[in-house]
Amino acid sequence: MAALTLRRKLAILSDAAKYDASCASSGSEKRNSVGTGGIGSTEGSGICHSYAPDGRCISLLKILLTNFCVYDCIYCVNRSSSNVARARFSVEEVVRLTLDFYKRNYIEGLFLSSGIIRSPDYTMEELVRVARSLREEHQFAGYIHLKVIPNAAPDLLAEAGRWADRLSTNIEMPTDIGLETLAPEKKPSEIRTAMARVRGKLDEADPDKKAKAAKPKFAPAGQSTQMIVGADAADDGAILHRAAGLYSGYRLKRVYYSAFSPIPDASSRLPLKPPPLMREHRLYQADWLIRFYGFDVPEIVAGGEGGLLDLDIDPKLAWALKSRQLFPVDVNRSDREMLLRVPGLGTRGVDRIIATRRHHRLRLDDVARIAGSIDKVRPFIECADWTPGGLTDDTRLRARLTPQPEQLSLF
Amino acid sequence: MHIVRMEGLNDFAEWRGKARQVLAAGLSPDQVEWRMLGDVGGLLDQPTPLPLADHPVGSVPRQFLDLAEQAICHADPARFAVLYRLLWRLQADGQLLQNSADPDNSLLTKWTSAVRRDSHKMKAFVRFKSIVDDSGLERYAAWFEPEHYTLERTAPFFARRFDGMVWAIVTPYRSAYWDGESLAFGPGGKRADVPQDDAVEGDWKTYFSSIFNPARLKVSMMKSEMPVKYWRNLPEAELIAPLIRGARQMEAEMIERTASQPPSRHLRQQAREVEGAEDVGEIASLADARAAVQGCRRCPLYEHATQAVFGEGPEHAEVMFVGEQPGDQEDLAGKPFVGPAGQVLDRAVEKLGIDRSRVYVTNAVKHFKFEPRGKRRIHQRPDGGEIQACKFWLNLEIGLVKPKVIVALGATAAQSLLGKSVTISKLRGTPIALADGTTLFVTNHPSYLLRIPDVEGKAREQAKFEADLLLVREAIAGLRKTH
Ligand code: SF4
Asked: What residues have CB less than 8 Å from B381, skipping those under 6 apart?
């Protein structure tokens, strides 16, 4: 076989990585290359250096070390039974590409994943070698995200966390049964054990906890995971329930939801249709409500029907329309928890309302200015010069607040 | 009318100095005209020498200085005058900046956010090209057209980031240079001052088109984050139109191309695996059981816990302690009794002189049952069905370890071992003979002791717990004698 050019390998191994939804390069420690003679910096918030026509930010060089894989996960383009073109980078090639791209300011850093070759340990060791080389030989201070290979030895994990800003282990499917059906070689408990190990290391390195000696650093941007949505029959309730369990158990920074998109050479057991992008969007909104608005999973799921979120309206509005007995909320008197539940009010809006009402009673105009737009808010609040009267319970309210389909389209 | 001429486009110190002079002279905003160097309209008029200050200058909020320093980088020619008007008005109304309805004020806010955004976009969209000279020294240069005068405030970012590189960023109004040690600014330039090509650009374009997933086309989203005005200097931008045009076709092809015959490499691998597959035979040892329990699906608890936590201790321990279920820490570690309750148990066992190396510890239920609550997992008590389902594993452990004495810690363990729900207070203090000849003692779960708030109550319960363990120790001693 003729040797592949670096560019051909890059085409194959970035194509293979395009189904992974995680992209963030934020939330790490602050550091730069001043005085090191190296390159790289992270300043807390990440920078998106480009955008693909799919609207997704390009912040990292997201590639696979290799797309050869001994596993045969049905949903994965790299599974061993697939006939896609295969390639493998050497450690040095990945290092060179990362530095070359970084020096031209194309990227914030590297997101490296891999098909499993030979063994989990061997594969993880290769990923770690790339990161080690970047940090130690090239004084690279940019962002590094490494994929954890479940079942790799704990000391490899410890070393990975030493070089990487973020580690992630993909949970892949919302249910264990789903995973075992579509990914027969993957063991859900091994995936969770890998996350538990990362969490243990994060806890040890936590600067908040008091300890005398300086602690070795470990993945300062934390860990994340990805769940594929729509490849199996799991409903949104199962997905969110799974996510809540992962957030609480493993101190995850993010769960990424990835609408299953058709892959070339796919098995007939998969839904070969355009990816459910709106469903994915609603799941992100629901996830947000759980993490920052004090909602729990059953409440959010109750806003939809039969375990699925409402696709036409956002999950907070869907919940509020079904919980009208709790409204209207008096913006001049209610506590923060309840204000956070008003559709159209965000955390910053609520904070501003609370700050402002210390000075004077809010009128509808004030709320409109703070919220940016009042339509969604009005039926659910009371203020100095406004009560919604029968509007809150109006049967046509839902129709009135449902955007027209044109606006709904993501294109 | 006084004409003040600005030498710099965005030099805050210059503006501040001049504004202070004008203000000290008591000139109101409509008595002053601010002109930029090279202003066509101002070609004929001479700057008026500024009157000497005749009364002291007032003060402004710190916030104004911060905002003005940003706003002065905005391209709007009115910036110097508006800032002066705000400065003037702030003398009379110190709270002016809090009034977001004021037109000058909202202009200030609009300008500062435009400047911040432009600066952020510069960090994102500068594209360096590499130049290697005859000596082999590699330098980098970029041509960038900011919408506002943001080079000076953004260049330090590049200095922090690219310490080990020699680089220049050329914009139409100014250039920045970094030689590896210090940052310098010079006059603006032209696009032609920077090379057109770069050896790595082809790789970058390859990456850009390969990472794009045609099934997710969302052009408006891309345009809102990467405004078209920046595209002319982004090498990858020329790919956007053809990628969009081809997307539907590519997606359709992906959907149509269903699975073909797997490659022979895959078939060979599958064959190897079938050969190597072992029969999962009978569970004949603790090690077998420990492996098998990880695949248990007897009740729904396996799905959200990390792993099954099996018992630990010597293979033929005399005593087996049975707790309720693993907690948060046990679930993460995969070992029983490593959390706070485990420490209470260890201390008591040691204090009463029970040989820890002869003790096997396990739980009635092997998976952690919890309710997620934000960043924490709240322990939940297993129900009768789960206890019953998991009895399979506890029975296996008892059968393999063959303890002489079993200690049930808490009601769940007692329920599992006795097959019915029971009250601890009624059962503790007396040995119970089980059908298989082992002796069962029942006491509280050590986590119960941890939950008692008052010191006295805690001491009382601790004493009762120790008294129960004392009985256990005596029973073990008794066993040894009869042997
Ligand atoms: S708790 Fe017990 S019965 Fe339920 S799944 Fe886990 S090991 Fe099986």
From this structure: B324, B369, B412
